[in-house]
Input
Amino acid sequence: MLGLMSNKNLLISSLIEHSSEYHADTEIVHRVSNGNIEKTNYKETNIRIRRLASALTRMGIKLGDRLGTIAWSNLRHLELYYGISGIGAICHTINPRLFKEQLIFIINDAQNKILFVDLDFIELISEISNEIPTVETIILLCAEKELTKLHKIKQKVLAYESLIENNQTLDKWPDFDERTASSLCYTSGTTGNPKGVLYSHRSTMIHTLAAANPDALDISSTDVIMPIAPMFHANAWGIPYIANMVGAKLVLPGRHLDGESVYNILDKEEVTFTAAVPTIWLMLFEYLDKKNKKLKFLKRCVIGGSACPKFMIEDFHKKYGVEVIHAWGMTETSPLGTVNKPLRKHSSLSQEQKYNLAIKQGRPMYGVKIKITNDDGEALPHDGKAFGNLWVKGPWICSGYLNMTNSDVHDENEWFLTGDVASIDQDGYMLITDRVKDVIKSGGEWISSIQIENIAAGHKKVSEAAVIGVKHKKWDERPLLLIVKAENVKKDEILDFLKDKIAKWWMPDDIIFVEELPHTATGKIRKVELKKTYQNYFVNPHKESDEN
Ligand code: AMP
Output
């Protein structure tokens, strides 16, 4: 017997319908490329989104068409999220920081018909314009009068604002199967080509409902929320959807993400909740320290994308009174998989014990299941000690990749092999020890590069640290530590600092001081590049640094 309840499809358009009706005058604030801050609200934005949707329909865009965006986190990008998906087309967010070859591959693989491009990327798009044959139209995210710039784009070029101005608003959002694809985002592809992760309305809606919960990101209508995680990477961690569901004031920071710009907008707009990768906070901390500033309004900060070092959790809490919510996810997981929130029983822990708990990547949200296995596929215990290959499954976890019929990372029971190595404790708290390809295999034992670099990063004279496994005649691989100094420091000081915090055989065989570390387009340390540069460091005799 079936239940007698509405079968209304869970569609993304329902979010904007809700916010424009019940949170009509709640502000949306966005910083435009010249640095100015502009303001609107949910009602006005909904009207513009309906005009965009009407324009796209009149241009012949149909269910399933892939429309690409190359844009910062700004108002027009938000409108595209909703306008494109709302009519059943697919909003394909493209990371502008990828290599040109990757961009071309992604646009062709997705067979984008239209690209919506911020003016800042006009040169980029001109350079690849000849190599993206499926793209018929480029819509520059600007007003008609800004179109005068010279460019070498071979496709038809339109101004976004003309599209909005010259169109009526869409009367009614179309209804369709909630399993329809809504958006598309490619993985960063540090090895091989990027892979297309295709989200559905259903997966996005369920993820949104789950992510706003108190035991997840804990976002409500009383918050002012600012995703710094970009809108071109894993849906800005779902925050643009959550904003409309709960009706929180939304702040979109645009392209200015240096310490001073982030501080100014946090302070001016009274942001209470934000989310970003650790590198953003390093820049903010440097600015706050230099200018002796405090964070008056910020209450919670989600950190993910890379492991959050312990000192960052401590500094946020002790110096600025901000609670860090450490979370783990992937493009393939929409992206939230686990979130670190303490349980009731943890209230009696000492502050130090609470920090030690907070460095874990957290517990699965409702809907997500996780497990770890050894290389033979056998399940490992959840005892907080054993670590192995991490698998995940749930209604917002990908079940395959676009245009790929065979996937070697999905099994027949819908488990997805993440490529991460982790341990899981009795309460389900997961600790990521490495990416499989980064784990250091020394004499048959595994060493966690993440754990060593997090401890090293906690030294006051260290600004950033990376640990890589480097070829070694006797042990196969040994750890090499690379450090960007915050101030002058000797190797021995760092080694002394590590000594009682890690096992003896985990101690790096050497330390190299570097000016900077290479980062991927999504803010992770580019270890592939470091390994290439230093692969023979322990094999060929090297010159001792005179800083030793
Ligand atoms: P992406 O698909 O680009 O978002 O990258 C996903 C990968 O980022 C994961 O598989 C992890 O290796 C890494 N990652 C994400 N969040 C964390 C975290 N909190 N700690 C450690 N690694 C993380």
About this structure: The chain is about 30% helix and 25% strand.
